[in-house]
Amino acid sequence: MVNTTEVSPESITQTQEPKNVLFGQSEEYIAQCPLCKTIETVTIGGGSQLLTTRKFYQSGRYIYHKCGSVQPCRLFRGQ
Ligand SMILES: [Zn+2]
């Protein structure tokens, strides 16, 4: 009984990422600016991408208010 079937190792380098990450479900957060105390609702897309860019901008994982604050906004999960 000879087993001649070769089992090739499966590729483990492929990461399974959802293809619709950019258009996935977006979530709303409450952003509070530590400088001017403004509280605004911002929308963050599925890829942790800030979609509300009128009054805020994103730098890395943080969101900053465009009032000149050098400290990132606090984010709270909204409804
Ligand atoms: Zn501000």
Quick overview:
By secondary structure, the chain is mainly beta. It has strands spanning 27-32, 39-44, 56-59, 62-65, 74-77. Helix content is 0%, strand content 30%.
What does this protein structure show overall?
This protein has a domain at 27-77. Helix content is 0%, strand content 30%. The protein has strands spanning 27-32, 39-44, 56-59, 62-65, 74-77. The strands form 2 sheets. It has a 3-stranded antiparallel beta sheet with strand order 2-1-5, with no helix packed on it. It has a two-stranded antiparallel sheet with strand order 3-4. The structure holds zinc ion (ZN). Zinc ion (ZN) is lined by residues 33, 35-36, 38, 65, 67, 69.
Please give the share of residues in helix.
Answer: under 10%
Q: Radius of gyration from the CA trace?
A: 21 Å
Shape: elongated
Query: Which hetero ligands occur in this complex?
Result: zinc ion
**Integer average pLDDT:** 82
Straight-line N-to-C gap: 63 Å
Q: H/E series, N to C?
A: EEEEE
β-strand percent reads: 25-35%
Q: Based on DSSP secondary structure assignment, what is the total number of beta strands?
A: 5
How would you classify the helix and strand content by structural class? mainly beta
